[in-house]
Design a protein that fits this description.
Elements: H1 9-15, H2 42-49, H3 64-77, E1 81-85, H4 88-96, E2 105-109, H5 114-121, E3 130-134, H6 139-145, E4 150-156, E5 158-159, E6 164-165, H7 168-177, E7 182-185, H8 190-193, E8 203-207, E9 221-225, H9 238-241, H10 252-256, H11 260-273, H12 279-289, H13 292-311, E10 316-319, H14 330-336, E11 344-349, H15 352-362, E12 367-368, E13 378-380, H16 392-397, E14 404-408, H17 414-429
Parallel strand pairs: 2-3, 2-4, 4-7, 7-8, 12-13
Antiparallel strand pairs: 1-9, 5-6, 8-9, 10-11, 11-14, 13-14
Helix pairs in contact: 3-12, 15-17
Bound molecules: pyridoxal-5'-phosphate.
Length: about 425
């Protein structure tokens, strides 16, 4: 079975892209731990190098274990194709690389993962790319930030750290009107909770490091292409529409149609940027994805229960979980991620910075780490760790004010987690 669309998500997360190994009958997808693949003859090698035949050459470009993961991700997101790479941050560069160039810009949400804010506000400037940060709840401001040099719109479906929900349909409409691709980071939601392509996204990027692998073992990234964007409708995307000198003048969009972005990502992106996912990491990620729906249901059940309990606690000033009735984004949950608002949210403590530091230090089941989306419950006080170099204004804008703590709710017993939070809150007030 591959990607039969009639199967439900729970079936596809186990079977899509995989079949018993043709050489041995092995039921589980083998880890193809090899760098290179033997050519049948010189003609076969030439056809592969000319992109006239699809096959395996060298594992910087393609590997059979990684290929199963790519097909599974494309199926789960409802896309035409997918390219996996070494991390979520690599996926963001790989997604932008065919679209951008010196002097060009992208319009991005202010509500993004902290590392993405740094990548977009600092590092991509070295490529001559500019990111314009806009409040994506202000649709007029998003439209106004777009100009002739804009090549992409970028946001997260459920945004880290606060669990804010982006109105993907509204943003997709703006992107569509401007003839631009919408790129959605779907890391915090996963395709089980949100399928951005159904809301108009062109590309979906993932840090597979988080909920997809699910147990904090390996790094990985992925770009899923909807296959729906017309790269040849304007002259804005020459990497995909114009002749490619590195392949004897081949035009990716004309030649590969809905798979143009995917083929470009492998044949140019992985070949020349080299941000390759290794087959061991692909294996761990495939193992994780087999139980994705089961884990997400438990993450949500626990997060709802814990967020509701925290909301009534005396030491807690605010809880940002969009799954709560009190959240301003509660209505968007029903439309954008109807199965639930994920497992990530922040709490504000009345005791301020000092209370947050004590609280994090007193937790026993929750681990204080810079990660999320693990079966283990995780906590981080951004202001004293990852964001400690920021000014008070920047901390506030990033949703990481000194009195804010981020929780990533795991799949443990919810009552055990509540008991741990309760004892730590008591110590934080003392
Ligand atoms: C972790 C994360 C990233 C970066 O992914 P890495 O795998 O750590 O490179 C990007 N976006 C979001 C929403 C994340 O949580």
């Amino acid at each position: 079975m591959s990607d039969a669309p009639s199967y439900g998500f729970e079936t596809q997360q186990i079977h899509a892209g995989a079949q018993p190994d043709p050489a041995t009958g092995a039921r589980q997808t083998p880890i193809y731990q090899t760098t290179a693949y033997v050519f049948r003859d010189a003609d076969h090698a030439a056809a592969l190098f000319n992109l006239q035949e699809v096959g395996y050459i060298y594992s910087r470009l393609t590997n059979p274990t990684v290929a199963v993961l790519q097909e599974r991700m494309a199926t789960l997101e409802g896309g035409a194709g997918a390219v996996c790479c070494s991390s979520g941050h690599a996926a963001q560069i790989m997604a932008l690389f065919p679209l951008m160039g010196p002097g060009l810009n992208l319009v991005v949400s202010t509500r993004l993962y902290g590392g993405t804010v740094t990548q977009f506000s600092q590092t991509i400037k070295r490529f001559g790319w500019e990111a314009r940060f806009v409040d994506f709840d202000d649709e007029a401001a998003v439209a106004a930030a777009i100009d002739d040099d804009t090549r992409a719109i970028f946001c997260e479906s459920i945004a880290n750290p606060g669990g804010y929900i982006t109105d993907l349909d509204a943003i997709a409409k703006i992107a569509d009107g401007a003839g631009l691709p919408l790129i959605v980071d779907n890391t915090s939601a996963t395709p089980y909770l949100c399928r951005p392509i159904e809301h108009g996204a062109t590309l979906v990027v993932h840090s597979m490091t988080k909920f997809l692998t699910g147990n904090g073992t390996v790094m990985g990234g992925c770009i899923v292409d909807s296959g729906k964007f017309d790269w040849s409708a304007s002259d804005k995307f020459p990497s995909l529409s114009a002749p490619e000198p590195a392949y004897h003048g081949l035009k990716f969009h004309e030649t590969f149609g809905a798979l143009a972005f995917t083929f470009h990502g492998i044949a140019i992106g992985l070949r020349d940027l080299g941000m390759t996912l290794n087959p061991q990491a692909a294996h761990y990620t495939l193992m994780g994805i087999e139980t994705l729906s089961l884990r997400m249901e438990r993450h949500i059940e626990n997060a709802r229960k814990i967020a509701g309990w925290l909301e009534t606690h005396d030491a807690v000033e605010a809880v940002t979980y969009a799954g709560l009735e009190s959240s301003p984004y509660h209505d968007r949950v029903a439309r954008i991620c109807p199965k639930g608002a994920g497992g990530l949210f922040t709490i504000t403590l009345k005791g301020g910075y000092e209370a947050c530091v004590k609280f994090v230090g007193a937790l026993e089941l929750f681990s204080h780490v810079a990660n999320l989306g693990d079966t283990r419950s995780l906590v981080i006080h951004s202001a004293s760790t990852t964001h400690r170099q920021l000014t008070p204004e920047q901390l506030e804008a990033a949703g990481a004010a000194p009195n804010v703590v981020r929780l990533s709710i795991g799949t443990e017993n919810a009552d055990d987690l509540i008991a741990d939070l309760d004892q730590a809150l008591a110590k934080s007030a003392g």
